[in-house]
Model the fold of this input.
Amino acid sequence: MPITINLDKILNERNMKSNELAEKIGITTANLSILKTGKAKAIRFSTLEAICEALDCQPGDILEYRA
Amino acid sequence: MLSKNDNEIEMNKNLLLRIVQALCYFFKGLISVSIVGITILLIHFQFNRSSYDNWELEFKGSKLKIISNSEENPVYYFGGGNPVFNYHMDSKKSIKGFEPESKSFDNWKNGSLFFNYFKFLIVLILAYRIFHQISNIISSVKEFRTFHQINIVAFKKIGKYCLLIFFLSIFNFWRIGDYSRASISVYLTPILLSLLAFFLSEIFKEGRGIMLENELTI
Done:
């Protein structure tokens, strides 16, 4: 899929661990892992909103289109 | 909103599912008894043909009529439904100077007897397998595994079994005494059931795709 998730990069920049983020946004670590590895088929606006709020970033910082 | 536990209780209480499952068990039992019954009849017939000389076979259009020569004289019709297409060839072998053999069951020729026995046996086994698959599907629905891969396979199997029954019901061959009948009958019901099962299999496949997509939506 040409859409990639840059969650690892943002997490490193914010010095935050995956399980910490999962707890903050209220999803399981397994689901966060699916999202990070690009296995997810879709992402809900509510999840995206929660991630942006927790990481203090924009959706464009997390999602990237690569042709 | 109902929790998964509440849903489970609701599903187990679902009367329609329970009725269908009970019917499946009933038909499976009935078919098992029929399989044993026809096998016992065949074995008994091999050893004591004379006890069936009261029974006669009469070809009536596309159907068979079984007549008893006993005092009550009951008449039974054999063959289910009307075929959409039927072609039959009757023949009577007679040798000059000899009385033709009667159509009573004791004159049932072995070739035709075993052909009909195995055909009927295979149809019964396939019908048993169909009810078994339906029962499995209902069990998985009760366990919230409706769109599991096994249900897609189960519907495909039902479709294949119905298709086999359709092909098996096409050719018929009877030879009793000097009378014989070979016929080709095309019944619409098994082929329609087969198409319905394949159609349901595709619907369940689509359902599974949607379910997986939903599971992978974060």
Remarks:
- The mean pLDDT of chain A is 90.
- The beta strands of chain A are 3-5, 63-65.
